[in-house]
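Schema walkthrough. Field components (list of strings):
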Amino acid sequence: MSTLWYEITASTPPGQVEAVSEIMRNASPGGLSVEEPMDLIGMDEGFHVREGEPVLIRAYLPVSELGAVLTDDLRTRLQDFPGVELTAKPLFEQDWSVSWREFFGVVDTGGRLVIVPSWIEHEPRPDQLVIRLDPGQAFGTGHHESTRLCMASMETLVEPGMTVLDVGTGSGVLAIAAVLLGSGPVTGIDIDPIAVDVAVENTEVNGVADRITLRPGVLEPGHGARYGMVVSNINRDANAALAPAFAEVTEPGGVLILSGFLAEHAATVTAAMTAYGFRLREKRHERDWCMLAFIRKAE
Amino acid sequence: MSKKIRAVLTLQIEAGKANPAPPIGPALGQHGVNIMEFCKEYNARTQDQAGQVVPAQLTIYEDRSFSFVLRTPPAADLIRKAAGIGKGSSNARMDKVGRISLVDLKKIAEAKMPDLNANNVEEAMRIVEGTCRSMGVEVR
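Field assembly_structure (string):
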């Protein structure tokens, strides 16, 4: 029989969060989880807190004599806070160090590329290209449509020896995919230095570190080099703003692959790119997400 | 890489002591976050603050990757330090266990401003004062 825990949730007015947290921390020495009511701004990397609404503070107490005493003590001490509503629900003990893995399996992009986490044994088909990658602190696990869309397009557009620039490389998954598909040297940049560390580790795990140069930073005018393919899975506004930079770093006749935006915004992104000498070559979508591939016109 | 957010939550845990037990296991497990990766990184980034609660605000993306930033220690920890006491009162209405000055109160409120739901220092001071009351710490 697994050990039981009680998950105690205190729905708390915003002004009392500090005081109520202190009381709950005394009963829950392992710590607390605090969830503010917020609206997620899906497209633009942000969120905002809904002011005035209750905050959910969660404590975890073992179901035992000690747990019962602590729960009673908690109820007594929270009587001074009439705005706080307490609820409790049982929770079975499990091996949380590995149970999160149930959300991850082999990601099949529908073509030759597959993404396989380290804990899964996978016998690839002869034509399959396997990327070994564990989810972590950088976007690009393969569990988002935009990543898979870029990979599917790269399968048809990467040519042998082609140089590639991956803008916003995240986990490095697209940079690794390019090398496995036969590209030449790949450069990956990301605004987040932690993502770059993660990407370096992933290129090493996949044995392609010598083919990929990774560095923190943003794509700026005067970047210097030109590439046969530029891939950028960021978001609508960032991609649109980078149109002049993309024109500068994409070779004439080269490919520009963009994703990270919804299908309904494809027209906006397309207009931004055509203004800088790109011609739309391919459009794909999965659920609401979209990928656009462009060819840079000859100068 | 594009960052499509799935959830945002804050863990109030002790520096250097993150492990898969509650609250971290159930809070992050339900979102499919790589728990050991978070624990390893949190412990490395907080190892010099042993003994303090250092909250971590996590942003979890749609593909279940994550990032986190460290927040200021809870007001109660700062109050305990300023009052020179080990813990708050178990009966805050009856037993007063310590005292801090108005200057201390303002300093704590200013330190906590970035993480409090307050529009100005006065509002932050009122919130911190409420925490003092609930701990049995007087402000004079």
